Amino acid sequence: MKLEIQNVGTIEIKNIVLDFNGTIAKDGRVYEEIKDKIIKLAKNFDIYVLTSDTHGNAKKELSELPVKLQILKTSNHTEEKKEFVENLKNTFAVGNGSNDSLMLKVADIGVCVINDEGVSSKSIINCDILCKSIIDALNLLEYPKRIVATLRG
């Protein structure tokens, strides 16, 4: 997906990077209402889920979804997520926690979501767009003119 954004330039999105708990899952369980959206988006984007796997069930929860799971390995998850997105490029990243803040900052488009878990002020400061839910965040990719309208200068 290529977006022409006034006073920003051209942004190309090929990848979606999602945080797990607090973003697409609550208490280790993927929100049912986003499963169809992820399946639909996977037809046009590569989708990655980054998690520390706090509940130990991310692999099982994501087993039927067309995503690539990346379980974080280092003790500095903030930096690990940032480096993952920097290396991937062309990325639309979505998160809510403090350890998502730098990932959102370096993404081509960083989206912070406010779900049941709340949101870190560090992530709010570093995102490009703030959405009230994961549904709204994923809808931006189905209706990209919303991104253009929000980010144009």
TrEMBL record:
Q: Which Gene3D superfamilies match?
A: HAD superfamily/HAD-like (3.40.50.1000)
Please give the InterPro entries that the UniProt record associates with this protein: HAD-like_sf, HAD_sf
Question: Which superkingdom heads the taxonomic lineage of this protein's source?
Answer: Bacteria
Listed name of the protein: Soluble P-type ATPase
